[in-house]
């Protein structure tokens, strides 16, 4: 999936899901994942097929799984993930998010 700013997000889906959803290149879809599947940090070094997304911290607060961070990827597109409780992340700071492709669920838009 290509985000409005050119960043890419990949998902692993089955051939059956691809066919049932009738997915086509360029089609608008929704990408969903649990916040607990997203790791946020000032910088992340990618390994393998991990999705790495860049954005700006717009909210931070304590959650059950650690420091809950909202990262604005583009205007109108925000993801929520978790950072280590000791993370130095501050509001308006550039940061990165990492998530595995198998954590990304694809749905049809509209």
- How does the helix and strand content classify structurally? mainly beta
Indicate the mean pLDDT: 93
* Helical proportion, percent range: under 10%
* Strand segment tally: 7
Please state the overall shape, judged from the principal axes of the Cα atoms.
Answer: elongated
Query: In sequence order, what are the helices and strands, one letter per element?
Result: HEEEEEEE
Main sheet strand line-up: 2-6-3-4-5
Distance between the termini: 17 Å
Please state the CA-atom Rg, rounded to the nearest Å. Answer: 15 Å
Which runs of at least 5 residues are low in confidence (pLDDT < 50)? none
What oligomeric state best describes the polypeptide chains here?
single chain
Q: Count the helices. How many?
A: 1
The fraction of residues in strands falls at 35-45%
Largest sheet: 5 strands, antiparallel
Which terms summarize this structure?
110 residues, mainly beta, five-stranded antiparallel β-sheet, two-stranded antiparallel ribbon, 1 helix, 7 strands, 42% strand, elongated
Can you walk me through this structure?
It is a single chain. This protein is mainly beta and 110 residues long. 6% of the residues lie in helices and 42% in strands. The chain has one helix spanning 15-21; strands spanning 29-32, 39-41, 51-63, 66-74, 77-83, 94-99, 105-108. The strands form two sheets. Strands 2-6-3-4-5 form a five-stranded antiparallel sheet, with no helix packed on it. It has a two-stranded antiparallel sheet with strand order 1-7. Strand 3 (51-63) and strand 4 (66-74) form a beta hairpin.
